[in-house]
Amino acid sequence: MSTARAERLVNLVLALLSTRQYLAADRVRTIVPGYVDATSDEAFARMFERDKAELRELGIPLETGRNSVFDPVEGYRIARRDYELGAIELAPDEAAAVALAVRLWDSPELTGQAQKALVKLRAAGVDVDESATTPVEPRVHAEPSFAPLLAAVQLGRVVRFDYRRSHSPERRPRTVEPWGVVSWRARWYLVGHDRDRGAPRCFRLSRITGPVRPVGPAGAVTRPPDVNLIEFVAGAGGAGRDPVPAMRARLWLAEGRAAGIRRQATVVGRRTVADVDGDVVELDLWVPESAADWIAAHGPDALVLEPDVLAKAVADRWERVAQEVSL
Asked: What are the tens digits of pLDDT across the range 61-110?
């Protein structure tokens, strides 16, 4: 940002903070230094629109309204009650955690938002040291669809996007009432009500292609209060699941192992596999595609006996891991 524009934005904020009335655009043009340089009404309008967008992006609550019903045009102001930040006190370890969180994101869009939050904390007098070293610094990568989906969840808006199923190049449009975006097994998932299927579903963000398009007004979507998003993604279902499971699976689990699967399953017998004793269990799966990842993560401690399509899906995941290790 140029020095001239930065000064103009500061002057604009001061002018809108210092008035209780709404200032019309033509009034702003005459009292805020920097706008007099506009060569025409159109040039001023473009300049003012860019500045308003910049202030809103910085988190400054810019209000729009009229001082009376007789005012012909709308004006602008900044309410101090919304602008001023309350006292923030962070212990040294909390400040260090904030600095680490800022460095976590590996997405340009989310990195920018994290940096803006850091600027606001420093403006409030919080000492956050970004240069502090850590022995291990993880990175959180977010897919391009992460930000628009998260915004849709927060606003309660229906979304549409093209989705590619596993191992298939075909893309199909989906219309979803989003409930939440969660991370499970190092992947991001959207959970919501799929209007095309008429049932709750989850979608891996890496398989969403093209833009995410919001549909309809904000507030149209309400997340069920008792739904467990992580359980749903893991294939265990939960209160918000489809009443009818997608499949019933039979697995062999090594004795004393795969506790995560055992909590969701029913033991129906005993079997020895490759000289290892274990239990035969059955469980219902609502999201088989995600369940294949879940089961494969248990390695040799979990073997799919039925159905064959799930056994193949788990075997495919093991093969991909083996190929990556061999490279």
From this structure: 788 888 887 878 888 888 776 665 555 566 666 666 666 555 555 555 55
Which of 182, 146, 179, 180 has its CA nearest to residue 161? 146
Can you tell me the distance from the alpha carbon of 257 to that of 13, in angstroms, rounded to the nearest whole number?
61
pTM for this structure? 0.42
DSSP notation for 172-225: EEEEEEEEEEEEETTEEEEEEEETTTTEEEEEEGGGEEEEEEEES-TT-----T
Nearest Cα to Cα of residue 200 among 83, 264, 112, 290: 290
Helix (H), strand (E) at residue 52:
helix 41-57
- Please write the tens of the pLDDT for every residue from 288-307: 777 888 888 888 899 999 99
Helix (H, G, I), strand (E, B) or coil at 279: strand
How far is it, in rounded angstroms, from Cα 254 to Cα 272?
9
